[in-house]
Structures are given as C-alpha cells and as structure tokens.
Sequence to fold (333 residues):
Amino acid sequence: MSNLVDPFARAITYLRVSVTDRCDFRCVYCMSEDMTFLPKAEILSLEELERLCGAFVRLGVRKLRLTGGEPLVRRNIMNLFHGLSRHLESGDLDELTLTTNGSQLAKYADELAGLGVRRVNVSIDTLDPHKFQAITRWGKFDQVMGGLAAAKAAGLAVKINAVALRGVNDDEFDHLVSWCGDEGFDLTFIEVMPMGDVGGETRVEQYLPLSMVRAKLAERWTLEDIDYRSGGPARYVQVRETGRRIGFITPLTHNFCESCNRVRLTCSGTLYMCLGQEDAADLLTPLRMSDDDALLDTAIREAISRKPKGHDFVIDRRHSRPAVGRHMSVTGG
Ligand code: SAM
Ligand code: SF4
Fold:
C-alpha cells in the first residue's frame, strides 16, 4: 500500500515523468510546427530526475513511465534508465516503462530490455507512410518500423497507441487491428484531448468519439468485454479473431477519474496532480534547497493532498481555444 493517499482515498502508485519537452516529430494534434521549448537551464538534470523518482518510489510509487516530448531523444537518457532500474532490482518498483514515438528504438531496445523494461508503448496513428508523414510532419515511417522490429527482437511487449482522428485515420482502424493481431501487439485508441494550441486544424474537426470507433470495429470484429486493466485509464476488449486486446482511452466521453492512481512530473520539476487541471506543485525548489529529501517528501505529500477529484475536459465548440493551455508534450501523454 502506498504511503501516498489522496483526499479521495486513491493510493498514488504510478508516476509518469516527462523527461524532456522536446521531440524529433511535430504531430499535428500535439505540437505546432514552430514550438518554443523550455530553456535548457530550466530542465532538471538526469541526476535530479533520478533523485525525484527515487523519492516517489520511497513514498510508495510502484510504477514509473518515462515519456515526453520524446524520451529517447534526451541526451544520455540511458543513464536515467540505468539509475532507475536499481529500484526494479531491489523490488521497490514493479514496472519501469516508457511511451515513445519509436524513432530511436532500433538504437535502444536491447539496452532497455537488459535493464528490466518489459513493455513499451509506441505511438503510431497510421500504417500509410504518406499519412504518417502528414500527421507527424517530421517523422520517418521506416525508421519507426525498424524500431518496432528491434523492440520485438529484444523481447519487449509492444502496445500501439493510436489517436483517432476524424477524416485522417478513420478508414484504417480495421487495418490497424489486423496488423496488431499479426504482429502480436496490443492496441489502444485515444481520443484527441484539447491541450495546447497546435495551430492549423481545430480540435473540433479532429475529434472522433471512441464510442463511434468501437461501433465501427464491432461491424467487422468480435469484441469481448474483459476485466483486464493495465494500471492506466484504458478500458479493454479482446478481439476474438486476433486474440489481442484493444484499449479505449476516452477522457471526453467516459470519466475514469474515480480510479486514478497517477500523478505527472514535468522535466522542470513541476508536479501535475491531474492531466486535465492547471493546479501544480513546484518540486524543483525543495529538491534544490537541500541534499536531504525531507523537504521534498513534505512537498510531495502536500501536493498529493491537493489532488483533485477529476478533470473537466470539454471540446469547446464555440471557441477553438484549448481547455488546458499546456501541450501534451509538457506533462507527457
Ligand atoms: N513522444 C512520445 C509518443 O509520441 O509516444 C511520448 C509523448 S506523447 C505526448 C504521448 C501520447 O500522447 C502519444 O500517444 C500521443 O499520440 C498522445 N497525444 C499527444 N497529444 C495528444 C492530444 N492532444 N490528444 C490525445 N493524445 C495526444
Ligand atoms: Fe512528439 Fe509524441 Fe507529441 Fe508526436 S505525440 S509530437 S512524437 S511528443
């Protein structure tokens, strides 16, 4: 049982860490093409990130996910994985994992597996190389496919994350399901969340409720409801024909906050207690004020005591402004 329990009796056992806000892609729903990133001086060092994660583990966090931005483009990121893998060895941590766009997996899959990483989430919205280019702007499809092959060869379990985008990839969902079946990957569909100004197309145009995705899939596949939970907010079904799972993350049409067990740390030491709320706690100051972790522990406990009951994402149909001003790459998906 975690030492960190919020006011609604939810034990906080899962920390997601955005290790960088930078990325080698510019996905249309996530970033604008001309993003301004945090100045390097405001970014925690890898040693500081390791110390912060260590404090959370000591206080009861059992699962760590590194994300971003693109976690694997941060320089020397493997040093952080090395440091954190010690908590797996000691038994204090159940899982160390990451969410990645896959561009660097060919380089790192073996090393990650060697450090005790068992699963990776890889974000791919389309299997059409031209569409892939249009969605990611800067991504290279073949590079990502190479990364996936390397992950498989290294024995990593792969889950594909696909954002459902109206008029963009909604003709490909069946193909994604059969491809994941062939490859032995699970698949999770994500609804577009109204976070950060991304320029160009509006969220209202991109938004596709997953209830519609599910209904469309059910025309072709036998979807069986299952109890499986991955520790995240997705609800899962099993596809009888492929034997693989499909998850649906539906922040807009289904409220999953009652079972929320997670908090999110940014690469500048800000802790967000809820993805859909602005309230945040500064952990950088207590971290740097003393080498002893007492101040840090107090700040973490105080932050958890403010964790809100839930979010109130809404795609605002009258205005195109995002419901939450920061981009997903700041807090990590
Ligand atoms: N770069 C890595 C990646 O793409 O997997 C990790 C960070 S990315 C912010 C994490 C996840 O958030 C990805 O699966 C991405 O598709 C998703 N994402 C980004 N912006 C989103 C948005 N506005 N709505 C829904 N999902 C979003
Ligand atoms: Fe980068 Fe991931 Fe955002 Fe795409 S979704 S721009 S890969 S951080």
